[in-house]
């Protein structure tokens, strides 16, 4: 297995994003529409937080709703903002960070996605799923 492959080779480049002004109903819709579990929250293109599907589950009964059902009881979502629910203390990585380094970070933390940034600019996201797919390709 190659040891110095940059994370830019496996990261998602067309990132689904939320703005601070978006609501949690929109977040729920994006999670389901794109079949994803993590959405970076941006102010402009600068990352300010990360919202996970698990974050939504913590404040709602979203897991009790059929995944094919587009109708969501949004009452609880109106009680919170994206900013209140998202993770704010992020670890981000650069596109040239190796896949091994990204895997080490994810293996040692309790989250499953890393924003990939060039300076303050969000350019991608890498998840544990991306790492598993890469591992499978190696065999």
From TrEMBL:
Keyword Nucleotidyltransferase: no
One Pfam assignment: CBS
Keywords of this entry: CBS domain
Superkingdom as given in the UniProt entry: Bacteria
Domain CBS: 11-67, 86-139
PROSITE patterns reported in the protein's UniProt record: CBS (PS51371)
Keyword Membrane: no
Protein name: CBS domain-containing protein
Upper taxonomic lineage: Bacteria, Pseudomonadati, Bacteroidota, Flavobacteriia, Flavobacteriales
């Amino acid at each position: 297995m190659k040891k110095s492959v940059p994370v830019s080779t496996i990261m998602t480049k067309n990132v689904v994003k939320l703005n601070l002004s978006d609501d949690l109903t929109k977040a729920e819709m994006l999670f389901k529409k794109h079949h994803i579990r993590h959405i970076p929250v941006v102010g402009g293109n600068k990352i300010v937080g990360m919202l996970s599907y698990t974050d939504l589950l913590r404040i709602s009964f979203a897991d009790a709703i059929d995944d094919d059902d587009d109708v969501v009881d949004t009452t609880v979502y109106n009680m919170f903002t994206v900013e209140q629910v998202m993770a704010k203390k992020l670890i981000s990585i650069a596109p040239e960070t190796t896949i091994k380094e990204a895997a080490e970070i994810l293996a040692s933390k309790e989250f499953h996605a890393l924003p990939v940034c060039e300076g303050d600019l969000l350019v991608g996201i890498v998840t544990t799923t991306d790492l598993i797919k890469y591992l499978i390709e190696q065999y």
